[in-house]
UniProtKB/TrEMBL annotation:
One Pfam family of this chain: cNMP_binding
Source species of the chain: Flavobacterium sedimenticola
Domain Cyclic nucleotide-binding: 29-112
Protein name stated in the entry: Crp/Fnr family transcriptional regulator
Length: 188
């Protein structure tokens, strides 16, 4: 739970009273590797903070799932569109490693907003982080080659190869595993 507090206190000071209200609404959950946190068709009920682990977002398919993002330690994770609209998600969320998260329900987030001085700032920071990751991902597909996306992924997350199967990385950067193999041969 201290990781959550440290994350926020990088940008804003949280009073002890506000922290007590906020932290009382958090619940800790640990999931095994390859655990589906949210299935497509379910409605997201939580905004979560990853204490440890790696999570992938994907669109399930009979032929081959389409991985479209990853989330790592010290980041927020949520099917945020579903969380906000209370509509079913069109994608699934799965752990790729054993993962520990701190969850906050939609209703509890509303309480934090209403009962604390810092609540709106906390919500805004989480929303901004999720938005910036999504924007960066979209722009990378418009402005970068698959090789550049691959290299950037490892600049941002150097331990990625040890933690994420190559088939998911290939899907994430928008290429086949065979094309990723050719890129890796050129680079290494």
């Amino acid at each position: 739970m201290e990781q959550v507090r440290s994350y926020f206190e990088k940008n804003v000071k949280i009073t002890e009273k506000d922290w007590q209200i906020f932290s009382s609404k958090l619940s800790k959950h640990t999931f095994p590797k390859k655990h589906i946190i949210l299935n497509a068709g379910q409605t997201e009920k939580y905004l979560s903070f990853i204490e440890s682990g790696v999570i992938r977002f994907f669109i399930p398919s009979k032929l081959q799932d389409l991985t479209f993002t990853f989330a790592f330690e010290n980041n927020f994770v949520s099917a945020y569109d579903s969380f906000l609209t209370k509509q079913p998600a069109t994608y699934s969320i799965e752990t790729l490693t054993e993962t520990t998260i701190w969850r906050l329900s939609f209703d509890d987030l509303q309480i934090v907003y209403n009962e604390t001085q810092i609540g709106n700032t906390i919500g805004r920071k989480a929303a901004e982080e999720l938005f910036l990751k999504k924007s960066k991902r979209e722009l990378s597909f418009l402005t970068q080659t698959a090789e550049e996306r691959y290299l950037n992924l490892f600049t941002e997350q150097p331990n990625l190869l040890k933690r994420i199967p190559l088939k998911y990385i290939a899907s994430y950067i928008g290429i086949t595993p065979q094309a990723l193999s050719r890129i890796r041969k050129r680079i290494y």
